[in-house]
Records
---
Amino acid sequence: MIPASRLSLNTATVRERWDLRACVDGCVRHGIGGIGPWRDKLAEAGVDEAARMISGAGLRVSGLCRGGWYTAAGALTDAVLDDNRRAVDEARAIDAACLVMVVGGLAPGSRDIDGAREMVAEGLSKTLEHARQAGVPVAIEPLHPMYAADRSCISTTAQALDLCDALGEGIGVALDVYHVWWDPALAAQIERAGRERLLAFHICDWLVPTRDLLTDRGMMGDGVIDIAGIRALVEAAGYDDLVEVEIFSSQDWWTRDPDEVLATMVRRGIEAS
């Protein structure tokens, strides 16, 4: 059972209907204890105003989505590094538990995935210089291998932790069950991460069939992921913080009344997790 006070609403879950103010107010109405804003919602509200409304509502921030995308320009440019420094500053301003990093896939026109991973490692190293000074933990989110070409060349928890080992303090992982549920090494890698490097935990479900590889995630309990089993693993490793619900669902949940979505999220958090 996950009480509502321990759940966090990732704003992507209701992105089509609600701005940040509506998300904050919705969390308060439904007793949800945390929020995980995306940077577009933060920008719409203004970072300072966003910080005031979140803290004024008594919500904790499970993470800011997102930094990274180091490979998008084909090289590690000043513009990319500057954007990641801004993301760190935004995470600090709203007192986020971490800055979630979607690191980027292949560089445009490239087939060199090893080169992409080298670019990512260099980019993370440079971002960490600023993040450590700001006191903002950086959380690598490994994505499902279907996104290796266009979104993240880091596909497994082991790969993410190898980067953490190489880069040192101030960096860990954000584990989203949608991306890691299939991994036969997951239990061992969660134990390897330990509490210090388990910075965020996201839940939703994998539907069968999946109609769209990006925007057809399921509400907890509607798919095949053993959410309770994975949650038990992260809790056994010491994680006892917010559990963030992040659902991209263009054909279902994004079309519904957001209050229905949040009510279902709270109920399913209890039932399916």
---
Amino acid sequence: MKALTPVLSTLTTAVKDAALRSLAQMIRENAQVLAEANQKDLEEAEVVGLAQPLMIRLKFQGEKIAGAAEGLEALAGLADPVGRTLSARELDQGLDLYQVTCPLGVVAMIFESRPDALVQMVGLALKSGNAVILKGGSEAKHTNRLLADLLLSTSVKAGLPKGWMFLAETRDDVKTLLELSDSVDLIIPRGSNEFVQYIMQNTTIPVLGHADGIVHIYVDGNADVEKAIPLIVDSKTQYVAVCNAVETLLVHRDIAPYVLPPLRMALEARAVVLRGDAETKRYLPNIEDAVEQDWETEYLDLILSIKVVGTADEAIAHINTYGSKHTDAIVTENRATAEKFMNEVDSANVFWNASTRFADGFRYGLGAEVGVSTAKIHARGPVGLDGLVIYKWKLYGHGQVVAHYSGSDPKPFTHRELPLAGRR
């Protein structure tokens, strides 16, 4: 597979975009057979008692199939991330340096219960010129196998080299994959904290991803209650089994009496179980007690923990202590407080007066995403096309040697910035 990376890196934009549109059309044409394969997975998962959040993620029918096709078409409409000049500098007359984006090479994606993630990863890898290894969970084996076969055959017909993508299916495949430090450039895991930690601890290959989605909303004392309630409800219930759904709500003491009772009505109408600290229970009697473990838990379920705080600083300190650096939001009408929150909360995504569910590659206009990174390396937040390219330095000279620029009478460098449009 590594031998194919030079071919993939030089595919034209026209070829890649045409292939993406072909994949979208193929998915629509095969929606019925894909749904049937997925139904087999759902029935088998039901028998073995797969957890409900994973069951939700496993489903690949109807709107999810349509969304997968739409995501591929959106990718085709985006600018090509490969070959983009990031900087240009003259070192000396006739000695020009360019920083230019290029594919990572071979990217491996290991994920649980998400057939739609397989489609997203294939599309993003194709557009960014990367070879891709895919390993889904055994609970999605029927769906993933059919998807991989259809995606590979369609993409090869559209001009990609044979073998540019590969579906791994066994635990032994994963063990082998984790040892391929000379052949795989990046691993992107998507799944539970335990799963991601296992990947990180058993490979020397760089790993990009996040382990938890412990997401917070802080309702400031200057919040608009009518704005806050639907925003919180959306963040918790629009799609509960995802990493950007809110898990902990922090409410300023001054506004707690006004926001908590109507919020309880709105959330309980959607079957959300509330857990609160002692001060929260003054306004919401008879809800469950929130304990220390609740602040550290990603529920992926209809459960919300609530804590009353006295200041924005207290809310920020709580988030930076218990959060997973994924997504956190503030609801307030005070711009200074909002800016303070977004500057001081150490998370990949920080929002002001917006649902945490917006933390998504498709909604960001990235076309799709391979996951959300909480790392502080080359990509952070929703990882789309820009997270699947790196860069190389291209130096154009006319026979210059370093000896002329060193010694007792060195020739000076000009280090003059060049227009990006002037790259050779």
---
Amino acid sequence: MQRSRLAALLAAILTIHALPALADPPVIIKIPRLTLEASEKIARAAVEACRKEGIQIGVTVVDRSGDAMAFLRDTLAPPVTIEVSRQKAYTAVNFNAPLSGMEDRFTKPFSVGKVEGLVFSAGGVPIAAAGNIVGAVGVSGAATGAQDEACALAGIEAVQMDLEMAGP
């Protein structure tokens, strides 16, 4: 009986000492990344979708950190579309949400919507692969935010199958 108590106590001590090792976070984290090729394909498809509607746009695709991966400005799109599309993509990736659902959220003074570089106007959409955010696309230049967003979504649609097949 004494021996079984000693064995149980020893097992409990070993278990308690092993628990912190199991709970320690990993030293590195593997993060899925959007490739340059996918970014270019998204941007090109967004421009083509807007062209079909007679709309000239600027489109920016950013990685999960908000850094630009690809940018296109159609021939007659105003120069302001360069910065606005980048800010839309940057905002969408940082909030991991389509901007069309956030337009009215940040209108109070001193809210996060007043932070320089953030734009809460429809046309920015996050890009996910296998449940992980990998970037965002921002479109600027259409007459309405809904048109900008439709073109952004068309860009993502061009690589949707590849995004869905991306494994962990």
